[in-house]
Amino acid sequence: MINEKIMVNDILSSVKSNLTCYANTISECANPTLRSAIQQIRNSDEASQYKLFQMAQAKGYYKPAVMAKDDEVQQTKSQLNG
User: Fold this and answer.
1) Where does residue 60 fall: left (phi above 0), alpha (psi -120 to 50 degrees), or beta otherwise?
2) Which domain does 69 fall in, by range?
3) Backbone angles phi and psi of 16, in degrees to 5
4) Are 45 and 19 spatial neighbours (Cβ–Cβ below 8 Å)?
5) 61-82 as b/e, with b when 16 or more CB fall inside 10 Å?
6) What confidence score (pLDDT) does residue 1 get?
7) Are residues 12 and 62 in contact, defined by beta-carbon separation less than 8 angstroms?
């Protein structure tokens, strides 16, 4: 039997994959109406994903990466802004 932790992490993984597909589709979509519809779907999925993430984190099912230090963030920003 699959436990709740496995199911939650599987759903989180699936939603993250879907969000990537939405981003790719939106960036290549020439039809404004379709683009808007896909953006709305993406926004809804992002909101659902965040709620699920919060629940998973609260139950100890998901542990995000350690937050970067401010100087590391600034260094990366400098490198990207070239």
Assistant:
1) left
2) 4-81
3) -60, -40
4) yes
5) bbeeeeeeeeeeeeeeeeeeee
6) 63
7) yes
Structure token pair of residue 80: 């990207």
- Mapping DSSP to helix (H, G, I), strand (E, B) and coil, where does residue 70 land? helix
The single residue listed with the structure tokens 């926004």 is 43
CB 9 within 8 A of CB 62: yes
Whole-angstrom Cα distance, residue 17 to residue 24? 11
pLDDT in tens, 28-63: 999 999 999 999 999 999 999 999 999 999 999 888
What distance in Å separates the CA atoms of residue 27 and residue 55, rounded to the nearest whole number? 31
7-25 pLDDT, tens digit each: 998 999 999 999 999 999 9
The total domain count for the chain is: 1
